[in-house]
Design goal:
By secondary structure, the protein is mainly alpha-helical. It has ten helices and five strands. β1 and β2 form a beta hairpin. The protein starts with 7 loop residues before the first helix and ends with a helix.
């Protein structure tokens, strides 16, 4: 079976459904042997088709990549009914550090410590182990402090399309009274 009789949209849907991770349009092109234009058109059609259907599955863009997921409200409902216990709950300290890194990336440990007023070494190691932050290598070989940034996994877990989506959320949060607390934490 060479798949030439299959429509690009069907192939894109099958690929997204079977992939455990979000896929870049370029990767989909590479796997399917299609042009970027064909893949982008198929993704847009699939996105609109699933949105119009209002079913349990949606296609979303996360960190510039595409992913097929269960609608968040259905996922939460199922999680509660199935009594799924999250194994990776983040502490308040971890959320503080993560927010600071996301807002000020790339940022050094010293800058994070100054904003929080406490040492963040243990929390940063934990976030590195969980794959939520990574070390940015700038000027390798020089004696500058390591800088940290959030990873693609951060955007996946929080369901964010991109860094711009994150910035819009922060701008909205900082614009209201609840944002003041967030602003105090993040500096």
């Amino acid at each position: 079976m060479n798949g030439k009789h299959l429509k690009t949209k069907e192939l894109v849907e099958a690929l997204l459904f079977s992939s455990p991770r979000a896929l870049a349009s370029e990767k989909i092109c590479e796997v399917l042997g299609c042009s970027l234009e064909e893949v982008e058109k198929a993704l847009q059609e699939l996105y609109l088709e699933l949105k119009k259907r209002e079913g349990a599955i949606v296609v979303r863009k996360v960190a510039g990549k595409w992913q097929m997921v269960v609608r968040p409200e259905i996922g939460s409902f199922l999680k509660e009914k199935l009594q799924v216990v999250s194994q990776g709950k983040l502490s308040r300290a971890a959320l503080e550090v993560l927010a600071i890194v996301a807002l000020h990336q790339p940022v050094s440990k010293g800058e994070i410590d100054l904003k929080r007023g406490v040492d963040s070494g243990t929390v940063l190691r934990s976030l590195l182990e969980k794959g939520l932050v990574s070390v940015v290598t700038e000027d390798a070989g020089k004696k500058f402090p390591l800088k940290y940034q959030v990873t693609e996994k951060f955007y996946e877990i929080f369901g964010l399309e991109s860094e711009e989506a994150w910035r819009r959320i922060c701008d909205n949060l900082l614009g209201d009274e609840h944002g003041r607390t967030f602003k105090q934490i993040s500096g």
